[in-house]
Structure formats: C-alpha cells, structure tokens
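Model: You mentioned two targets. I'll fold them one after the other.
Researcher: Yes, keep them separate.
Model: Target one:
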Amino acid sequence: MVQSCGRLIMILSTERSGSTLLAAILGGNKRVVAPPEMHVLRYADFSAWRQAKPEAVSSLSWVMNVLGEPSSPQELDNRFGGLTTEDVYRELLKLCGSDQLLVDKTPAYARKDDVLERIEKLEPFYIWLVRHPLAVLASSQDRRIQRYTEERNNTTNLALKVKLDLRRALDRVWRFRYGHYRREKLRYWCDINVRIDAFLTALSEERFIRIHYEKLVRAPEEQLDRLCAALGLDLEPSMLNPGSNVPEPLAWGLGSEKVRAHSSINPQIADRWKNRFDESLLDKQTLKIMERLGVE
C-alpha cells in the first residue's frame, strides 16, 4: 500500500501512440513530475534494471534531481541497490510532496501481464492512451527508417553503412510494400490493447481514464479539462506548450524526440497517416477492437 504522499500516474499504451507528447503535456503542470521513459518496473529489482537498461538511469537521475535529491548514477546505486522495483517507487513517492504526481510512461510495460501485476501493487491511477492503429503503423515505419539514417550518419564504418542501406532497402521493398510489417504491427496493436483492456476493466472505473490521441490533438483543452478533472489538477497554460516541458535526458529509447518540436498541439498530426494508408487494410479483428475502444 502506497503511503499518502506523492501519487503515481501510469500511462499505458502501445509504442508510437503519443505517450511522450501526453507526458510532456502533463509535465507542464507545476504539480507533475514527468520524466522520460523509466523502464524500472519491467524488472523485479533495481540491480536487474540497472544491468538491462543502463540508458534509463538518466530518467531516474532526472527525477531525483527535480526532487532535490542526490542524483548521480553512483548515488542511485548506493540508495536503491538491493531494493525491489516496487520499493524504488515507494521511496520516490515518499520524496514527492503530498500534492505531487509522478508520471511513468513506458509503453513496454503493457507487453507482459506480470509487469502490469507488479505495477498494480503500487495502486496507481492509469491513463490508457489509444491511437488509431494505422497512425501507429505509419509512425513506427517512419521511426524505423529514421533510426537507420541516424545510425548511418553516426558511423564511419563503410561495411556498417552498406549493411544499414541494405536493411533500409529491404524494409521498404519487402516488409513495407508486401505488408509483413503492417500485419506484424497491427497484430501487436491488437494484443497490447486487448491486454490493457482486460487489465483495467478488472479495476473500478475510478482507477483509470481512456484518452484518444486524435481527440487530444484536435481538441486539447476539452480533453485536458477531462483529464485534469480525473487527476485533480488545474489546466495550466504551459500544458498546451509541450515542447517547452520536455525533460533534458529524453533521447532514443526513452521516448520520441519529435515532441521537442511541438511549441503547440497540432491537430493536423492526427490524420497524416491517411496520406499513406486506407482503412481497407484493417482486418476484422482489428476493426472489432477499434469499435470496442471507440476509435474513430
């Protein structure tokens, strides 16, 4: 049972659903601490997390720095070494003020039931973020190609450059054109959202809220009024300027860096996928889940 100090807010979604944007929006509220992806609760204890996700230590360091605590990796190891990851969060929530909210948005949490069960021991409030599956697919394709480009530009190894060029070409010609990547990603979208649905509907309705990405970017003030009411927050103007709320450690593997460009919330990004895909690509299973979740 979490002590009555800070409150944990958990964002659940698939990757590329806009969780980085939502976290940056929430981070614009002075009562909210919203770091880049933490990944901590994917692992049973602090040591396992440190070994498996060394890049995520910058997220925990950022949180500790915001809370006015020692924040170097060595100091974190000394403070949290030997603790379960649930106890790491209990310590963080003790450090938060009684009116503070700690947001954790790590899409990988929703991949496994045992991780969701670990999270539930902390009794958080959940935000279920849902985005149209073809928008998720388009964003995933773009990020995959962007990653090849970044890796190619960051190496002087000719053999690696050639390998990356071949992988990018194979993606475009084979995986993307012939639908392998699409089927894989749509199946993943279904699996993750079905798992979240089963998990959250077993809880009381007061424990979670479902937010649709498209509604959020088209009518941000309306959706944020709804979200802030659920979280007990005031809608502050800075929340509508997410690019100014991005934590400094945000990098590849810890969220989408594209959020830095959002000086405001652009409604046009909701429909960009329509220039590339048509809903006739969706199978019956995906359409059925979309209907259940209220996806337009």
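Model: Target two:
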Amino acid sequence: MAQILLHGNLHVTIYEVDKIGDGGGRGFFQKIVGNIGEKVGIGNGISKLYATIDLEKARVGRTRILENEAANPRWYESFHIYCAHLASNVIFTVKDVNPIGATLVGRAYIPVEEILDGEEIDRWIEILDENKNPIHAGSKIHVKLQYFDITKDHNLGRGIRGSKYPGVPYTFFSQRQGCRVSLYQDAHIPDNFIPKIPLASGEYYEPHRCWEDVFDSITNAKHLIYITGWSVYTEISLVRDSRRPKPGGDITLGDLLKKKASEGVRVLMLVWDDRTSVGLLKKGWTDGHT
C-alpha cells in the first residue's frame, strides 16, 4: 500500500479492548523463552497492558500501563499529535510488559486514506497478529480519530500578530511576550578564546559561558524553572572555573534545584527517554518498541 504524507494534526482517543485471550488473563500471554521452557508474561495471572499509536515505524503516542485488567483493558486516553509522516496506516499496537521487555498482543490498522477527508472515525477495529490474522477470541479495540490537514489551519502563514494570535494549542505553556533565545558556541569558553565574529548590525559577537548563565538563571529564578534535555545529570557543578567563582557555585545542579524548590520556585523537568543514562536498563532485553 502506498504511503501518504500526513502533515497536520491528528486527534486520537484510545478507549478500550473488548476482550483479550480467554478473558481470564491466562493462555494467550504465556510465552516460552530460552531453552528451559520458563513461562513468563502474564500467564501467572499478572497483566501490564498498554497501547500505542504508530505512523508506520514512528511511535507518536502511548497510553499508561494498566495492571490486572487483561479481560477488558480500558484506557480512555486522548492524544493531539502534530505529524509530518509518510504512512499507509495508523497502527494501534497492544503490548504486555513482562520481565524480558514487552510481548506483542496484536495490532489494529486504519488506512490513512480513510482519514484524509477530515471526517471523524469512531469504530471497533479487529486486532491482528504479526501475520495479520485475527488473534484468539477475535479481540477488537475501540478508537476514535480525526485528521486536520495543515492547510486547513487558519493560523498557517499569519505569523504572530499581536494578542490575536492564539499560539500553538494543546501545549503546556501559553504564548508569552518577552521570550528570548541565547546561542552558545560552547558550554564554557576561556578568557583568551574570543574570536572576532562580525554581525550584520556592524557589531561583533560576544560569546557567553553557557554553564555560568544557566547557574545565574536558576539562582535568580523567582517563579519557574523548566529544564529539558536528552538526559540530565544532577551531580555536575555548573560553576567550574576557579578563576571565576560565584556565590553558592560550589553545589551540584541537583542540590541547586532542590534549594530553589524549597524556596517555593516551581521546578519542572522533561527528560527524553534515554535508556543509556540508566545503568540497570543497559542489562535488560528490549524489542526496540517498549
């Protein structure tokens, strides 16, 4: 099936699965691993089920994990997905978390062609195995989705025009004035390394020290600290140059954030799913889609 570019907003709700296996949390989820024939998964009566939304190989949404609800897992979770993906299907995958990673329960498919007209789709879809055959007991998943093409966005191409621009919807922070972006050449620059870089204004670029500026921003924060990154190592010190000491600069990033939180500053962190930063997870088995 040909892939079609989805460029716009995809609104999806995953409701529930009508039944899985024989409804008792056994049978289907027993899995034989290794040569010793050990049974794992929820064949022991414990289920940990979650569902995902995929645009081909791109995972764009995932529900919470439901424990011990194998007979009729009900998530009732909604997602607003900004997409620019080539796909032939919107794929709903149901998995079970177990000691070796995650076991595939099955996948349900809605062809992309069916959502292009922007009409809302609300239906039960058959769950299929890896060979696209119906899984045991004919299980189905109830989903709702609607696609809004980017060309239908009334804000497209308007830019920011004063207070009438609503900003990007479904985001944590609303649009604000007075924001700025600081560009850095390196995390730290020695005093004798200041190249002459002319700017369009006729002035010269003045490099700053990233870690020191981050320290100053956190130290001076009065209301909110929001940190994002691939991984955040809280044991580092931001002030490291002995020739440029700062009051309070002898503590780690983690202690600095705890100090600000104790002062009443709201501290928020968004860390990407970086398994390599967690030693225990390096030893585990994964299927690449957990």
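Researcher: Noted. Anything on target two?
Model: The first strand starts at residue 4 and ends at 17.
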